[in-house]
Design brief:
single chain, alpha+beta, 5-stranded antiparallel beta sheet, 5-stranded mixed beta sheet, 9 helices, 15 strands, 17% strand, disordered C terminus, binds zinc ion
């Protein structure tokens, strides 16, 4: 199983200059290859093979127009061609229908204005992680790395990118064997919600951390500021960079949070069940934005691969499981409830149910996990006591909720 490790790089000015040159050379090699294939196609000649493009690259390096390509690692240039070849293969597979999913267009020319610049070093390039933690890249130098965790094994490749906020990252690919954890006793169902990021069948409600919420507020503010700036003005360019930065910070904070939460859940539980996001049916409503902002899909993906990695069971509950319509204590189905109804009493078993926890318990049960419904039951009065309405009759409670 292949895993990616992403971490931030802190290149010094000389590294930035060398990386800028490498990004540029990789772009030129990609574009030259693309132009050669397009020209051949337009001239009615056969498709230029991967080997032919590679030979042309070697020949180009001794011409005066392209001699500067020798200043960067040859592997970086080969990998740029490999990217082009992959792009073509995906395009052809999409054309003849062997590739599922949305249709893919033909490869497009890369620009220095693209928001993301990338180069890849494979093991052939002899990149090394030095004992002091720096990353040695051929013809670039020893670049400082902000490691978030150690690499589990020797990386087979590293991709260095620069994003639109001007930040540099390294993404290592490592081969990871399954690291089985000792068997855990508990299992858990998870309901992904809007008010809380996740609600667990054991009754815990998990809210996104404050720094993430703050970063999101700053992002929205930056986006509003950008929309007020005049097109083509210098201030607009500045505002755009500010948005890119704020965006990157939100993405980072969210990823860290999702990593921590998914690792904890996989460690604690032998089996984890989560509702398939399509079930939520929120994606097409006005809630869509917050749904996407909540970053659930990344979180669910992390749960899946960590479960595989650590030998845990992972379930996604499919469509049409009425998680809010069924009492998790006795199983009686008492129909849909509007979103504002946060808790109710089961008409059959008289249990008081918390909407989110009830859903999480139902998710676990739908996956065949043995969880108790105790967590889903609330004591009457607990939720409304804060609003000074404790002691009201259950029927009026329901109206008030
Ligand atoms: Zn019931």
């Amino acid at each position: 199983m292949q895993l990616r490790y992403n971490c931030r790089l802190d290149p010094q000015p000389r590294h930035r200059a060398a990386l800028g040159k490498a990004f540029g050379c990789a772009r030129v090699v990609f574009n030259d290859g693309l132009a050669a294939r397009r020209d051949a196609h337009q001239a009615g000649q056969p498709y230029l093979t991967d080997a032919e493009l590679s030979a042309r690259l070697t020949a180009a390096k001794v011409t005066p127009q392209r001699v500067w390509l020798t200043e960067v690692s040859a592997v970086v240039l080969q990998q740029a061609l490999a990217d082009l070849n992959t792009a073509y293969r995906n395009y052809f597979a999409s054309l003849n229908g062997t590739r599922k999913g949305p249709t893919i267009g033909p490869p497009r020319f890369r620009s220095r204005k693209d928001s993301r610049q990338a180069i890849r070093f494979t093991a052939n390039a002899r990149f090394t992680v030095l004992p002091d933690g720096k990353l040695r890249l051929p013809k670039i130098g020893d670049v400082p790395v902000r490691w978030s965790r150690p690499l589990q094994s020797e990386p087979s490749s590293v991709t260095v990118t620069r994003d639109s906020a001007g930040r540099y990252f390294a993404s290592f690919v490592v081969q990871a064997g399954s690291r089985l954890l000792p068997e855990a006793q508990s299992v858990v169902g998870i309901d992904l919600g809007l008010k809380h990021f996740a609600v667990l069948s054991d009754g815990r409600k998990i809210t996104a951390p404050r720094f993430l919420r703050r970063a999101e507020i700053k992002l929205r503010r930056a986006q509003r500021a950008l929309s007020r700036k005049q097109k083509g003005s210098r201030n607009r360019d500045k505002a755009r960079v500010a948005v890119a930065r704020a965006h990157a910070r939100v993405a980072d904070a969210r990823r860290d949070f999702c990593h921590q939460l998914s690792t904890a859940l996989i460690r604690e539980n032998q089996a984890v069940a989560v509702e398939n996001l399509a079930v939520k049916g929120l994606a097409r409503t006005r809630l869509a934005k917050s749904v996407h902002d909540a970053g659930w899909s990344g979180f669910v993906m992390m749960l899946g691969y960590k479960a595989r990695l650590y030998g845990r069971e992972f379930y996604r509950i499919g469509r049409f499981e009425p998680t809010s319509q069924r009492c998790s204590a006795c199983g009686v189905r008492d129909g849909p409830k509007p979103l504002h109804v946060r808790e109710w009493q089961c008409p059959a078993c008289r249990a008081w149910l918390d909407r989110d926890i009830n859903a999480a318990v139902n998710v676990a049960k739908a996956a065949g996990l043995a969880v108790t419904a105790c967590g889903a039951q609330v004591r009457p009065g607990s939720a409304l006591a804060q609003r000074g309405e404790a002691g009201t009759h259950p029927t009026s409670r329901r109206k008030a909720a």
